[in-house]
Structure formats: structure tokens, C-alpha cells
Amino acid sequence: MKRLAVNAGLLFALLSQPALAAKTYLMVFLDDAPVSGIELDLDGVDAGTTNARGSAEIELEAGEHVLTLVDDEIRFPVAFSSDAGEDVEVSVTFNSTPGVAPAVTVRNFGPGDTGSGYITGQVLDAAGAPVSGARIAPDGAGYAATADS
User: Fold this and answer.
1) Can you say whether the dihedral through the CA atoms of 140, 141, 143, 149 is positive or negative?
2) pLDDT tens for the 149 residues of the chain, in order
3) Could you give the CA distance from residue 28 to residue 56 in angstroms, rounded to a whole number?
4) Which of 28, 81, 124, 149 is spaced 20 to 30 Å from 61 by Cα?
């Protein structure tokens, strides 16, 4: 009987824990430039600021959320939802042209999902000079590219 009570207690403790949705990855831009120092508020709680690359990583529980971007007196809310074990990517691009609304993209990625994106950078030799024609092949990606300069 004691063993049953202990096992039931452990099961209840495990089931009552909130399911994490892993992380939210945020990117904020003004036109093509990253925006650093944007204050972040997730569901009414301080979630830090964007870094020099205009990005931030925030852990959250599964469910409905509002991520608010704050700069001076401007507050820009982004609503999204997440399931247990699911990463969420939020991209917000503000436009310097007056009257143009910000572009907001929210993408959810569950375990085993794959996405698409870009890898950018330079291939340099030991002296710091660009290497033209270098073959770039990420492990397990199933594709390769050649550096153009």
C-alpha cells in the first residue's frame, strides 16, 4: 500500500509539472538592420532584451502567449501559441517608411520538424583573406555549396 501511494505521488508530481515548449527564438529588424536593446515582456513578465544581433531566446511553457516588444513608450504585442516540446520562431521587421505596418512571422517547430533558412558568412584563409571556390557541406544536411568570393 505504501509503495502504491509513493508511486501515485510520483506520477502526480510528474503530471502536474508544466510542459515546456522548449524555447522561443525572436529576431527584430528595422528594414534589414537588427535592432538591439528592445525590452521584452512575455505574458506580463520581464523576458530580457534583444542582443546586438536583434535576437533573443526565451523559455516558455506550452499554451497561449503574448510577447510584447517595448521601446520607449511604444509597445508592440505579438500573440502566439505553443505545444509541449515545440520551439517557436518569431520574426518582427519594422519598416522605416511611415505608414507601413511591421511584418510579423511566427513559425512553430515540433520534435523532428525541419525548416529552411540561410547560412551566411565568409570563408577565410589563415591570413584572413576570402577563399574563392571553397566547398561548404554541413554535416548531415545532404547538400553542399561553393563560396563565391
Assistant:
1) negative
2) 444 333 444 344 444 444 444 788 999 999 989 999 999 999 999 999 999 999 999 998 899 999 999 999 899 999 999 988 889 999 999 999 999 999 999 999 887 777 666 666 778 888 988 888 888 877 777 778 887 76
3) 9
4) 28
Q: Which amino acid is at 22?
A: A
Burial code of 45-75, b = ≥16 C-beta within 10 A, e = fewer?
A: eebeebeeebbbebebebeebebbbeeeeee
CA-to-CA separations, 38 to 73, 95, 105, in angstroms, rounded: 12, 15, 18
**Maximum CA extent, the chain:** 73
**CB of 37 closer than 8 Å to CB of 74:** no
Give the span between the Cα atoms of 125 and 128, in whole angstroms. 5
Q: In this structure, are residues 51 and 93 in contact, taking their beta carbons and an 8 Å threshold?
A: no
pTM of whole model > 0.85? no
Place of cell 511553457: 61
For residue 90, how many other CB atoms are within 10 A of its CB? 20
Contact 25, 87 (CB under 8 A): yes
